[in-house]
Write the structure tokens for this entry.
Amino acid sequence: MSNALLSQSVGYLQFWSEYHLCTLTTLRPDGRPHVVPVGVTIDASTGVARVITRKSSRKVANVLAGGGAARVAVCQVDGGRWATLEGVAEVCTDAEVVEDAVARYGERYGRTPAPDPERVVIRISVERALGQTLAPRPQGASSAAA
């Protein structure tokens, strides 16, 4: 599988290091989308995005119902800038994996969540990266110099 993050611009990857609330979209067993706010971290070198959550959450149930091939998307928006990552998710319960994901979350969001024995990681193997991360021109701006 190719790493869709490695082909992105530095600006695109920088956008994923800024403090932004994201959304995670999973599919319920009946096919309806489930969209929730989350924090997301990425590792461009491995093509992985991570979401920390509780194992009793609906999003975890949806990923588990996907039988190891749950399709998901994470997205963030800031004005006219936006980025979406699509891929296949798995739920990881290994303590070291969870600890690493919590540390990454702390780096991006400037705070480390309190310990939670129910915490798991939704690990997303990114297959596609979309978005527009260049700052849009202000309204009324002209390309001609005055």
